[in-house]
Amino acid sequence: MSINKRREFLKLSALAAGGFLLPSASTQAANWLSGAGATTHKFGLQLWSLRDDLPKDPKGVLKQVAAFGYNQIESFEGKQGMFWSMTNKEFKSYIGDLGMQIVSSHCDFRKDFERKATEAAEIGMKYLIAPYLGPQKSIDDFKKAADEFNKCGEICKKNGLKFAYHNHDYSFKKIDGEVPIDVMLKNTDSNTVFFELDIYWAVTAGVNPADYFTKHKNRFTLCHVKDRMKNAVATDQNSSCVLGEGVIDYAPILKVAKANGMQYFIVEQERYDTATPLESAKKDAAYMKQLKF
């Protein structure tokens, strides 16, 4: 085993020892199927989970999402825009009739952001989110991005919204001796720029999500909830799976998150091996309904 692989293995082992990774998926599945700890909290779906189906029939797919039990929607900006060939108000009205609300959307924050903030504000959205920066050449590149985020944060504030950044695993990998997400947290305005912690990507990077929730209270106000496959090697990035079938023990993680300012719990599904996207979304909703935190 190489030194880097061993380090990642030890990080994941520490997560397991801390109680945030299940010793086996069967324990989690048993609790889920037994209905232990049922709760009535709200939870949402990142529509990227249905990226192949949604463009073909936005209204029909959204109707199925509502039937699965999702209360909230986090959209993304595809070819049909954040509102899927509907106006912002048409979209709000349609999903409202289905019992859902759009709370946030991923978008291109470098293009026509003022208009997007205005449209989001008109329908009561809470956040616009930068979904991806990608690995950068230097830590200064992340500092420059933080400056851009501060400007977006001011635009959002002016419109009654908040701005947030969604991480991937690269956000936790040191560059020039510093951790990018730490630099982003330090160099952004805590009153206008927030963070959406993708818990899967944090765990994949060998990070304990609870450490960030407690150290940076009220900065992580949204999160992505998705599981990591059992027996996935530490270096395997593409190992997400249906909630309840993997190794991440979400109840203790989300309890800590909620106690430290987390407001929105958004399911995201990226990989489909055992079910179609819609089947996966349905299974994920069933898991979230039974999760107590």
UniProtKB/TrEMBL annotation:
<feature type="domain" description="Xylose isomerase-like TIM barrel">
    <location>
        <begin position="63"/>
        <end position="290"/>
    </location>
</feature>
<dbReference type="InterPro" id="IPR013022">
    <property type="entry name" value="Xyl_isomerase-like_TIM-brl"/>
</dbReference>
<dbReference type="InterPro" id="IPR006311">
    <property type="entry name" value="TAT_signal"/>
</dbReference>
<keyword id="KW-0413">Isomerase</keyword>
<dbReference type="InterPro" id="IPR036237">
    <property type="entry name" value="Xyl_isomerase-like_sf"/>
</dbReference>
<dbReference type="Pfam" id="PF01261">
    <property type="entry name" value="AP_endonuc_2"/>
</dbReference>
<dbReference type="GO" id="GO:0016853">
    <property type="term" value="F:isomerase activity"/>
</dbReference>
<keyword id="KW-0732">Signal</keyword>
<dbReference type="InterPro" id="IPR050312">
    <property type="entry name" value="IolE/XylAMocC-like"/>
</dbReference>
<protein>
    <submittedName>
        <fullName>Sugar phosphate isomerase/epimerase family protein</fullName>
    </submittedName>
</protein>
<feature type="signal peptide">
    <location>
        <begin position="1"/>
        <end position="29"/>
    </location>
</feature>
